[in-house]
């Protein structure tokens, strides 16, 4: 059996996340079923990040094994030809037998996009239209609080009973993308909790849009280590897995 590593991009709008499910369409299911149709073989895909329903990806890293012997470029071309337009295989290469998706990760980069004005129709599915004025300097100050190593239990789902919720954030920045009339929050770190980026983005945008909340509110919530706070969880549509770097 040969092991392969792929980089996948997808628009997650029409999918209930990455992971195959019984009665809901998932990205992995479409890829696996399409492979079976093209090559008459079954495979099981494993992803570096199990993105949630509605979340997008540019650089999802995936592995699988097969006894099929074919050049990787031919495999990618034939597979892509039958995939729907909202999923694309960007690359396929043979992987070492001991390559592991969750080992030797240097960092993962997530983007969160939001709009301060009604977005154009062809980009609206990739960002959160936030209807209140956002102080971008205050937003950056709020994001800065997350940089470093902290217990992020307050920005998790709350279901991580017994799980280590300490994580490290290498950088957290915001920039304006004039061509899309959108803002991009970029958060980089080696490992994230479920919902962590969306909860961080939602909390910071909320604080940056309200005069009655100071930047220190982010610090207070972080230090409380309690996910049951009132700062919002940003919608899935604005989140994108951009890149995963390995050693």
Mind explaining what this structure looks like?
- The chain is α+β, with helices and mostly antiparallel strands and 247 residues long.
- The protein has two domains: 2-94, Pseudouridine synthase I, catalytic domain, N-terminal subdomain (Alpha-Beta Plaits, 2-Layer Sandwich); 106-246, Alpha-Beta Plaits.
- 22% of the residues lie in helices and 30% in strands.
- It has five helices and eleven strands.
- The strands form two sheets. Strands 1, 2, 3, 4, 5, 6, 9, 10 and 11 form a nine-stranded mixed sheet that branches. A two-stranded antiparallel sheet has the order 7-8.
- A hairpin with an 8-residue loop joins strand 2 and strand 3.
- It starts with a strand and ends with a strand.
Distance between the termini: 25 Å
What's the total helix number?
5
Supply Rg. 19 Å
Order of helices and strands: EHEEHEEEHEEEEHHE
Q: Averaging pLDDT over every residue, what do you get?
A: 96
Q: Determine the fraction of residues in helical runs and give it as a percent range.
A: 10-25%
User: Mind telling me the CATH superfamily name of the largest domain?
Assistant: Pseudouridine synthase I, catalytic domain, C-terminal subdomain
Q: Which range does the strand content fall in?
A: 25-35%
* Main structural class: alpha+beta
Query: Number of folding domains?
Result: 2
The unreliable regions are none
> How many beta-strand segments?
11
Largest sheet: 9 strands, mixed
Name the shape in a single word. Answer: globular
What fold name stands as the CATH topology of the largest domain? Answer: Alpha-Beta Plaits
What CATH architecture label of the largest domain applies? 2-Layer Sandwich
CATH class of the largest domain: Alpha Beta
């Amino acid at each position: 059996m040969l092991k392969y590593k792929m980089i996948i991009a997808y628009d997650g709008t029409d999918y209930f996340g990455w992971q195959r499910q019984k009665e809901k369409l998932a990205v992995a299911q479409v890829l696996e079923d399409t492979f079976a149709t093209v090559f008459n073989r079954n495979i099981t895909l494993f992803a570096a990040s199990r993105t949630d329903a509605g979340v997008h990806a540019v650089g999802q890293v995936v592995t699988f094994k097969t006894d099929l012997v074919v050049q990787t470029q031919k495999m990618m071309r034939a597979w892509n030809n039958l995939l729907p337009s909202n999923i694309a295989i960007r690359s396929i290469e043979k992987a070492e037998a001991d390559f592991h998706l969750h080992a030797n990760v240097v960092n993962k980069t997530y983007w969160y996009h939001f709009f301060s004005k009604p977005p154009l129709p062809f980009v609206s599915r990739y960002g959160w239209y936030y209807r209140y004025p956002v102080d971008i300097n205050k937003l950056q100050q709020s994001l800065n609080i997350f940089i470093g190593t902290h217990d992020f239990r307050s920005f998790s789902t709350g279901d991580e009973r017994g799980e280590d919720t300490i994580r490290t954030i290498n950088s957290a920045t915001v920039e304006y993308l004039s061509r899309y009339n959108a803002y991009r929050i970029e958060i980089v770190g080696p490992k994230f909790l479920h919902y962590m980026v969306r909860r961080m983005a939602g909390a910071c945008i909320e604080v940056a849009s309200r005069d009655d909340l100071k930047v220190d509110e982010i610090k207070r919530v972080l230090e409380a280590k309690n996910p049951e706070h009132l700062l919002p969880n940003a919608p899935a549509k604005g989140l994108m897995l951009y890149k995963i770097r390995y050693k």
